[in-house]
Amino acid sequence: QAMNLREEDARRPKIREDEIRKFVVNYLSKRGFRQTEQMFREESRTRDIEDLAVDQILDQHTASLGNALFFNNAENDPARYDESYGQLRDWIQSSLDLYKAELMNLTYPVFVHIFLELISKGYSAQARDFLAKHSPGHTERHGEQIQSLEGIFTTEHLNQNEVASYFVKNKVAVRLSSYSYRLLIDFLHQNRFMSLISIINQRIDVKVLQGMPSPTGEEEPVVPLAGSSTEDFAGINRKEIYWGELQPDEAFKDQKGDGAEDKGNREDGGPPTAKKSKKDAAEAPKAPPPEKPSRTRVPLPKLSERVESEVFEDVRKRVALSSNTLPSVCFYTFLNTHGGLNTVEISADGSIMAAGFDDSSATVWLLKPSCNTEFSSLPEFVGKGLFSGMNPLRLIGHSGPIYSMSLSPDKTFLLTSSEDNTVRLWSLEFGSNLVVYKGHNYSVWSVDFSSLGYYFATASHDRTARIWSTDHIYPLRILTGHLTDVDCVKFHPNCNYVATGSGDKTIRLWDMNSAECVRIMSGHRGPVNALSFSPDGRYLASAGEDKDVLLWDLASGQRMETFSGHDKSVWSVDWSYDGNLISSASADCSIRLWDPHYKTRSSTGDDVPPRTACAKTLRTKSTSVILNKFTRRNLLLA
């Protein structure tokens, strides 16, 4: 009986192996993977099935697509790594543009893992040669990480290096369409690149999606935010925010209603409208829409009558823009600055311009002559005393270069931030410094007044942003969370939120009330230099060192569009006041006008859609463009 049991046990594995072979062959045949099926049959004749690793099973009814990828652990030749990776890049470069964009996202994690494997196996010299040979193809997007990898020489350095430690402990997510993934599988099998197959199986989380390939090949962030998991990241972006415009002031609504009742007649000459009964008024919903914050959520000041009348006049004379109706553009050129110009600010009506320099001074110019009655809405002090005619007003007080400036909505005050860790409030009427705000530990890169004045925000090299009010010398809120410098800051139009852009390639949206981060937007491949909200507050445009302009939906925190075309860093971005155009200024001596709604217009057929999102490119002769800004009448100044 014991002998019989042993014989039965010896026969059982063989039966299971045959069944597995038949099952896999039938499965590959049904799915149409002819080349994979043929290769599997050949391997089955010469090797035992237990030596082959089947990592994923294909299933089109799920969101992911697997594949029977086989690898050979004996393939450890350093030259084979270099050869296989070079052929993989050449194959992707020669692929159709439809698949190339998303397949290229796979090359960087494969490149890093090959380098780390060579180091871990003791091939330090070969690893250095591999890094030097193939790193130029990734320097543009991942220059900082490659620079960090260059410091790895031995296996002991792997645990000490932050980038290497992350790649070893985590799987990098790469999104591929199902057809692109099939092309990749066939290529790897045909060339028998078992080392690449092993890396893809073990080290990379390939998320295969149904449908057509992404034309932009959007790349997920390689290194996530420190101290927050993917679940935390998604949870933050699900928080409720009030991105809409402020609710109308109750006093304004009452005044408007009384005025309508006094007139008694409609503007079109029709009969007077009947007053609503108290019962109807009680039944009317009083709760504001969820996307619009109430005026009591954050204590907000009121604009002066002079500023309100100026805004109404500008709105009345505003020009409607589109990709077929482009704005007039006015360029101002600074001569003989010798590299000393750091920042420029222009008022919302285009009447005042200020500039900050390396010599710690700021200069303010009047762009519109005060004698012209058309611009009588300028402050009363303009044209008198220090600020008169074409004589600029020079402000001296900082002890370091000035990096950012912001004018108050009524154009009576100017904020400047400097390398001396301070922010100063200047009176344009008296040409003197009123307040010095101290709180940051390092240079202050950016400052921005809210659209109603009183509040302002700052961004600093100390990795924090802070919210202030003009009547307090200490910050009201300290916003912490970025991993490196906070390079730019921008107030939301409803003054309830502040957006910050950082050298860690992320953008964060902060709640004024709680100083809590309510959105994290990751997608830039370099530091973020500029931010701009759409007039309705729903969208955010960002630009930076990666030469792209990204468009974000604040409701979901998702990226909507990527506008590419600049050849160098983008320094400034701004929305037109009707929300139909975005302008970007770059170090490549150009301004580009983008149509954020070009896909919508294309689908509705209202206008002849442009072939690309770029509606117009405006170039200077040889001068970098440091700022571009739309006035309230939609004139573009740069």
Explain this structure to me?
With 638 residues, this protein is an alpha+beta fold. A four-stranded antiparallel β-sheet has the order 4-5-6-7, with no helix packed on it. The chain has a four-stranded antiparallel β-sheet with strand order 8-9-10-11, with no helix packed on it. It has a four-stranded antiparallel β-sheet with strand order 12-13-14-15, with no helix packed on it. Helix 1 (2-31) runs antiparallel to helix 2 (34-46) and helix 3 (78-93) packs antiparallel against helix 5 (107-120). The radius of gyration is 31 Å and the shape is elongated. The model is unreliable at 46-74, 223-231, 251-288 and 370-376 (pLDDT under 50).
Layout of helices and strands:
Elements: H1 2-31, H2 34-46, H3 78-93, H4 97-104, H5 107-120, H6 124-134, H7 139-149, H8 156-160, H9 162-169, E1 172-177, H10 178-191, H11 194-203, E2 204-209, H12 230-236, H13 250-263, H14 278-283, H15 305-316, E3 329-330, E4 341-346, E5 352-357, E6 361-366, E7 393-396, E8 402-407, E9 413-418, E10 422-427, E11 432-438, E12 444-449, E13 455-460, E14 464-469, E15 477-480, E16 486-491, E17 497-502, E18 506-511, E19 517-522, E20 528-533, E21 539-544, E22 548-553, E23 558-564, E24 570-575, E25 582-586, E26 590-594, H16 598-604, E27 614-619, E28 629-630, E29 636-637
Parallel strand pairs: 1-2, 3-29
Antiparallel strand pairs: 4-5, 5-6, 6-7, 8-9, 9-10, 10-11, 12-13, 13-14, 14-15, 16-17, 17-18, 18-19, 20-21, 21-22, 22-23, 24-25, 25-26, 26-27, 28-29
